[in-house]
Amino acid sequence: MVLLTAPATYADLVAARTQMALSLGWHIILACLGVGMPAITLIAEWRGHRTGDPAYRMLARRWARAMGVLFAVGAVSGTILSFEMGLLWPGLMGVYGQVIGLPFAMEGVAFFIEAIFLGIYLYAWDRLSPVKHLLTGIPIIVAGVASAFFVVSANAWMQQPTGFDVAHGRVVAVDPWAAMFNLSTPPQTTHMILAAFMVAGFGIAGVHAVGMLRGRHDRYHRLGFLLPFTVAAVVTPAQLVVGDWAARFVADNQPIKLAAMEGLFRTGRGVPLSVGGFAVNGELRGAIEIPYGLSLLAHGRTNAEVIGLDQVPPSDWPPVNIVHPAFDLMVGMGMALLLLSAWLGWTWWRRRDLPRTRWFLRAASLGGVAAVVALEAGWTVTEVGRQPWIVYGVMRTADAVNPAPGLVWGFVLVFAVYVVLTVATVYVLRRLSRDSPAPTAPQEHDVAGYPVA
């Protein structure tokens, strides 16, 4: 069941895919902050009201201001993405727009709800009672998570298309609800939402870790590090479990993608897990192999058969030297963040304090970068691993791209827009970070510069 549209040149395809990758890779970082940051901010505000600690209240106010900036910039990049879906991929939207239109429409509703309550939350801080103001933040959290769910469910449909039939070359019997709640939706949306909390938590904590490395060991920076880091550290083990669930789903439903993820060219039993290496002439070279690992992880048995790339023509192979390193990078960053979380958890359990070494803060300052790298690598696996299909097994990417000439100039224009957005966003956030935090009671410090508990 393959539907074809007008062909496009290879240059058109490369330009469109590169532009979409840039837009998605840029926007997804802001989207993650938009999902995770409101919850972290509300926890800080709630703790401030409950304990009376001015440091919590100052953190909540400053994070809320940054949240407003990031939401505004994310709205711009999200709008660009929505236009790109129609302009770059008319073959997809023209044929399947009626199938996947529902989650996009519902995401629009969630976006407006989030925008309305974010405005109330930011501008009514001193005009509402503490409890009422705190309650206005709850719809922001709900709408942010819902927005992520709806958008990712549309992408999940592209991995596991359902909710329609094809008769005489036309899409019929459309069921938008079945399309939105396809088999890939549960693992993929859960994986994405947890990733958002990891990016937000480790990212915010990393900023305060840098401040602590520069000698700012006041309560403001200490709490600014501990609160978001704890949220991310709690989510990380759950993310690894969900990641295993998602990988098993891929093994059962997208075996060629799994073969690309592992650089497996030949079908076999008792297949080892390959770490590292590059594909050369139909063979993965230089990899570290863990005996029986892939069979065990994919199907729960050491002698289980794992499908290789030899089961489909080479024209249907994803680019292994992109997908395989990206998968290894995602897993590696996830394991590193788990170890970093365990380091803090072990020390806190023993001493109720941070690890008394600057190496921990150095590692923590890179936690946000590691989370973003894992996020981008994961999306690379998801999207590039689906190639050459834009709708898995149904429509090829080359058949969906806009065949109009000159797409490369559109990419140049969009690239320039993102450069301006990046510079402006960094400038504004740096200006916000230079505001002096509210003074707190002086603390006694040990010889290493850490506050005495």
Automatic annotation (TrEMBL):
GO terms for biological process: aerobic electron transport chain. Keywords: Cell membrane, Electron transport, Heme, Iron, Membrane, Metal-binding, Oxidoreductase, Transmembrane, Transmembrane helix, Transport. It is found in: Cell membrane. The keyword Ligase does not apply. It is an enzyme of class 1 (oxidoreductase). GO terms for molecular function: electron transfer activity; heme binding; metal ion binding; oxidoreductase activity, acting on diphenols and related substances as donors, oxygen as acceptor. The chain crosses the membrane at residues 20-43, 63-83, 95-122, 134-158, 192-211, 223-242, 326-347, 359-379, 407-429. GO terms for cellular component: cytochrome complex; plasma membrane. It is a multi-pass membrane protein. The keyword Chaperone does not apply. Pfam families: Cyt_bd_oxida_I. InterPro entries: Cyt-d_ubiquinol_oxidase_su_1. Its EC number is 1.10.3.-. Belongs to the cytochrome ubiquinol oxidase subunit 1 family. PANTHER family: CYTOCHROME BD MENAQUINOL OXIDASE SUBUNIT I-RELATED, CYTOCHROME D UBIQUINOL OXIDASE. This is Cytochrome d ubiquinol oxidase subunit I. It comes from Actinopolymorpha rutila. The lineage of its organism: Bacteria, Bacillati, Actinomycetota, Actinomycetes, Propionibacteriales.
